[in-house]
Design brief:
The termini are far apart. This protein has eight helices and ten strands. The strands form four sheets. Strands 3, 4, 5 and 6 form a four-stranded antiparallel β-sheet that branches. Strands 1-2 form a two-stranded antiparallel ribbon. Strands 7-8 form a two-stranded parallel sheet.
Length: 203
C-alpha cells in the first residue's frame, strides 16, 4: 500500500487484503465513499445516486428525506476519499435542532421542488417531524399564506405589524395578502413615488 501525503489518495500493489486497505485508508485520514440511491415520486421511478463519504452518509440521507427523496437500497462502498464537511441543509439538520431558520428557502426552485420543500416544512412542524419551530423570511406572500401560523412584517429594519394572516387582512381591510403586506410595509408617500416611477418608465 502506498499513501500519497499530498493528495491523500491511496494505491495498492495488489497484495493488500480488503481489511488492510480499509485500515490503511483510515490511517491516512480518508473516509469510505458510498453510493447512496434515492427515488422521488416526481421522477417516474428513476433513481438518483449520490456519492457521499460514509461519515456524513446519515446526514445526506436526512437531507434527501427533507427534499422528498426516499432510499432506494442500501449504501454501497465504492472507494475512499478525503473527509468532507457538511453542506446545507445537512449541517442544519444533522443534530435534529428544535428551531430551523431559513432565508428565502424557495428562491430559485422550480414548481415541483417548491412543492416538495413546502411539504417537508409542514412535516417538520408535526409531532412525527419533531414539532420544529421554523422561522423563514420571504418576499413571496403565497408562501406566507400557505405555511405561516404567525407573521411579522419588517420594513426599514423595524417591525411594523405582527399577527396571523387573517388578523393582518382584517387590520388592513384587504382580501389579498399581498395587498395587505404592501399597505403595512410601505407608506403612502413611498407608494406614490413608486407609481410615478412606473408611469415615467412607461412613458
Amino acid at each position: 500500500m502506498r499513501i500519497d501525503l499530498h493528495t491523500h489518495s491511496t494505491a495498492s500493489d495488489g497484495t493488500d487484503t480488503p481489511a488492510e486497505l480499509v485500515a490503511n485508508a483510515a490511517a491516512a485520514g480518508l473516509d469510505a465513499v458510498t453510493a447512496r440511491s434515492y427515488q422521488h415520486p416526481a421522477l417516474d421511478g428513476r433513481t438518483v445516486v449520490r456519492l457521499v463519504g460514509a461519515a456524513v452518509g446519515p446526514a445526506e440521507d436526512l437531507t434527501m428525506e427533507f427534499l422528498g427523496f426516499a432510499p432506494a437500497g442500501e449504501p454501497v462502498e465504492v472507494g475512499h476519499a478525503r473527509r468532507q464537511a457538511l453542506g446545507f441543509p445537512a449541517w442544519a439538520l444533522v443534530h435534529d435542532p428544535a428551531n430551523i431558520i431559513l432565508d428565502e428557502p424557495t428562491n430559485g426552485l422550480d414548481v415541483l421542488a417548491t412543492r416538495a420543500l413546502r411539504e417537508s416544512l409542514r412535516w417538520l412542524r408535526t409531532p412525527e417531524g419533531g414539532s420544529k419551530c421554523i422561522v423563514f423570511s420571504t418576499h413571496i406572500m403565497q408562501e406566507v399564506e400557505r405555511l405561516c401560523d404567525s407573521v411579522v412584517v419588517v420594513a426599514h429594519g423595524r417591525t411594523v405589524a405582527a399577527g396571523t394572516v387573517p388578523e393582518l387582512l382584517a387590520q388592513t381591510g384587504e382580501e389579498d395578502f399581498e395587498e395587505a403586506f404592501v399597505k403595512l410595509a410601505f407608506s403612502d408617500e413611498e407608494l406614490a413615488d413608486e407609481s410615478r416611477a412606473e408611469q415615467g418608465a412607461a412613458a
